[in-house]
Amino acid sequence: MSKIEVRNAQGKATDTVELSDSVFGIEPNVPVMHQVVVAYEASLRQGTHSTKNRSAVSGGGAKPWRQKGTGRARQGTIRAPQWAGGGVAFGPTPHLHTKRANNKMKKLAMRSALSGKVADAELVLVDDLSFERPSTKQAAAVIEALELEGKRVTLVVDDDDVITYLSFRNLPKVVVYGASEANTRVLLDNGALVMTTAVAKQLEEVLA
């Protein structure tokens, strides 16, 4: 079991928590993480990019001039790609960019990402982040107390913790996700990963 320090909202160490080595202490599998992140980002692409080829451009039905005798290069239509206003040669067409990564790979990638954060001392666990009401000022004070100012911070909160989400969402360089939204890209794309011990235990249970 990996022992990780737990800090409070004032930035002081209050306790340690034991987390499973099978989730937070494995050797990160970089190729699998890369493959899963590429698949995730590919799924975000709409694939609606399109251009008109020479058959889709209007006009150009008649041959511009006769084949021989004019001294100019032979041309069959003014809508050929070399003409201004002509069709596009080898342009993009609508298609899917989806790549597949199975659930086993996704879980291994997330375990690798969490283990990498622990190894790099970029995982920050806090005991509680609940506020009585949404307050960006209090949220900024927490970030300052945790010595994370200026860093790109990813905060993973419980799905039902709306107050914490509303408190942190307007802070610069801070991105907030619910526990169910966490994926490999979310866990990696930051300089510090912050979550409560409850969320860490939740991820441990899902990924074990």
TrEMBL record:
GO CC terms, sorted: ribonucleoprotein complex; ribosome
Family annotation (InterPro entries): Ribosomal_uL4, Ribosomal_uL4-like, Ribosomal_uL4_dom_sf
Stretch list, region Disordered: 47-78
One biological process term in Gene Ontology: translation
Keyword rRNA-binding: yes
Keywords: Ribonucleoprotein, Ribosomal protein, RNA-binding, rRNA-binding
One Gene Ontology MF term: rRNA binding
Segments of skewed composition (Polar residues): 47-56
Assembly notes: Part of the 50S ribosomal subunit.
Function noted in UniProt: One of the primary rRNA binding proteins, this protein initially binds near the 5'-end of the 23S rRNA. It is important during the early stages of 50S assembly. It makes multiple contacts with different domains of the 23S rRNA in the assembled 50S subunit and ribosome. Forms part of the polypeptide exit tunnel.
Record family assignment: Belongs to the universal ribosomal protein uL4 family.
UniProt protein name: Large ribosomal subunit protein uL4
Organism whose genome encodes this protein: Olsenella profusa F0195
